[in-house]
Amino acid sequence: MHAGRRLVLKGGIALAALVSFPRILLAAAWPDKAFSSTTAGQAMIDLLGTDQTTPSDQIRLKVPEIAENGAVVPVTISTSLENVESISIVVENNPRPLVATFEISPETLPDISSRIKMGETSDVMAVVKTDAGIFSTSKQVKVTIGGCGG
Amino acid sequence: MTKAAAAFGSIFAILLVQQAALAGPEEDRAAFAAYYQSRFPDIPFAEFANGIYAIDSDARAQWLEIEEFPPYEFAIEVGEAIWSEALPDGSSLGDCFQQPVEDIRTLFPRFDASRGEVVTLEVAINDCRVARDLPPLGYDSQAMISTTAYLAFEARGKILETRVSGNQLGALAAYEAGKRFYYTKRGQLNFACADCHVTSVGQYVRADRLSASLGHPTHFPVYRSKLGTMISLQQRFAGCIRDVRAKPFELQSVEYRNLEYFLNYMSNGLELNGPGARK
Amino acid sequence: MASKIKVKAKLSGDIAEIKTLMLHPMETGARKDPDTGALVPMHHITQLTLTKNGEPIVVANLSTAVAKNPYFSCKVRGAKAGDTLKISWVDNLGATDELETVLG
Q1: Is B109 in the same domain as B144?
Q2: What are the distances in angstroms from CA A26 to CA A81, A85, C59, C64?
Q3: What is the distance between the terminal CA atoms of chain C, rounded to a whole angstrom?
Q4: Is residue B275 in some structural domain?
Q5: C2 → closest Cβ in B68, B69, B74
Q6: Which subunits count as partners of chain C given 3+ CB pairs below 8 Å?
Q7: Within 10 A of B100 (CB to CB), how many other CB atoms are there?
Q8: Residues A50, B222: Cα–Cα separation, whole Å
Q9: CB-neighbour burial class of residue B87 (10 A; exposed 0-12, middle 13-18, buried 19+)
Q10: According to the model, what pLDDT value does residue A15 have?
Q11: Are residues B78 and B64 in the same domain?
Q12: Based on CB atoms within 10 Å of each CB, which residue in A39, B89, B110, C92 is the most buried?
């Protein structure tokens, strides 16, 4: 049995011993608790085991400066970090900050796009989990109430 | 002078006056386009078909992202099915129009002299259904809007060439009525369409940036992100009129049909690029 | 019936760029029905899975904060013409949908 299995999971510590296991994309249970968390920090602890991330300028987060409409905000996240396991989108000021989390296979490029809802002006954080740790970058997106967008 | 000659003379005079007055719409249109071009000298004429995205770059970037895979594609599919489905008598909607599908959007709105009113595409679609003993589609129904979305898509690239013909008694009057509506202040806020979309174009009304009316009709119907559904040009009229705190008119009322006629004429020369995606 | 999943897949070299648009209300559960005033129940895609030749390439867990009529795009290496791409989702009410396409 691999010694790695006896390692206790501690926040932020790379599980080097498990690298030899092929990483399987689990059609795992929907992370209910993480999606129910009302703070970004708690959501990350529930999802990734920690709310500590390493800021990285190797993550490119494309979001608008001022969202045309909070109901549909385009988000693109790409990174040159290697061995990316998952990419998650966290909107600090949303009632439930964790918006989505994307687990990707080793063949999938760490370059994804989607469209999200934002309730109000907020920092949008891209959280990238690799085999070396958890990295992030964030940008503020302004959300305004219209005047006559009808 | 004989009575006949006098009668002939006066009819001739009326036609002459009408001919002269028809310099009106074309002059109006040229002045309209020239105004926006002078307000935004760096924007090519054709770009105005993109509405606010011609003048706001951050909004344009978001719009281009939506256009990567725009939700109106679902409506186009639904519309195509409605257009080609067999009606009880074996015919389909297309049979009423007897024109290639890519031309149909370009035929409307038009002035129908025999009816003495402007006929829009939506009215024509319902005329077709009623003639075949089918109930008309609601003007705000997704079925109607999807059908016009499909026809708008098929017509992409065609140049808008609305006609206000001097040979049709009433066409000019309808155009003038639409124009008058556009420039008339209304509602508690006492705004005319022109106050926002001509005078204050490019400026902000709270957090919304005002688009130019040049190009307004080319990209409808639109998928609205805010609503997650499609809306028609006339539903947008109703929305704007509610926003200035006036009571909206009924969809396909004579007021809205004349306004649609006027606005389409003002955008002549632009490429049709519907359906569109907006916030 | 019109499909509720649309996909556009483009092959460049050995990289397939996959874009998908799904018809789904993504109701948050916090919106009031304008006619009845009652809350519209939460109804959203919970999990979206993309596979290439049967192997998962992306498993996405989504909340109600993904926009209505969700859009997702990604790129996968090691792709070639003839590969089968499948997009499938399940929502919180247990409904499912899927679409398969062959990379051209």
Answers
A1: yes
A2: 22, 11, 8, 21
A3: 24
A4: no
A5: B74
A6: A, B
A7: 10
A8: 43
A9: middle
A10: 44
A11: no
A12: B110
Residue B133 included in any domain: yes
Give Cα separations from C51 to A70, B35, C15, C54 (angstroms).
Answer: 31, 54, 14, 5
Helix axes B142-154, B121-131, angle to 10 degrees: 120
Residue A62's identity, in one-letter code, is K
Contacts of C99 in chain B (CB under 8 A): none
Tokens of B226: 């805010």
Whether residue B237 is found in the same domain as residue B109? no
d(CA A110, CA A108): 6
Number of domains chain B is built from:
2
Q: Are residues B236 and B261 in the same domain?
A: yes
Contact B74/C20, CB-based, under 8 Å?
no
Instruction: Pick the range with the lowest mean pLDDT from B88-97, B101-110, C5-14.
Output: B88-97
Mean pLDDT (chain C, rounded): 95
Shortest Cα–Cα distance, B195 to chain A (Å)? 14
Query: Does residue A120 sit at the B interface (CB-CB below 8 Å)?
Result: no
How many inter-chain contacts (A to B, CB under 8 Å) are there? 61
CATH number of the domain enclosing B89:
1.10.760.10
pLDDT at residue B186 is higher than 80: yes
- Given a cut of 70, the residues of chain A with pLDDT beneath it are 1-28, 149-150
> In chain C, which residue's Cα lies nearest the Cα of A105?
C57
Q: How far apart are CA C72 and CA C20, in angstroms?
A: 5
ipTM: 0.95
Model pLDDT, residue A148: 73
B240 included as an active-site residue: yes
pTM for the structure as a whole: 0.89
Distance CA A41, CA A52 (A): 8
Whether residue A35 is contained in a domain is answered as no
Range of the domain at B78: 72-154
Mutate to test the interface with B, among C1, C69, C73 (most CBs of B within 10 A): C69
Of the candidates B155, B189, B170, B147, the residue with the CA atom closest to the CA atom of residue B254: B170
Residue B7 confidence (pLDDT): 60
Output the pLDDT for position A14: 44
Dmax (CA) of chain B = 72
CATH number listed for the domain at residues C5-102: 2.60.40.10
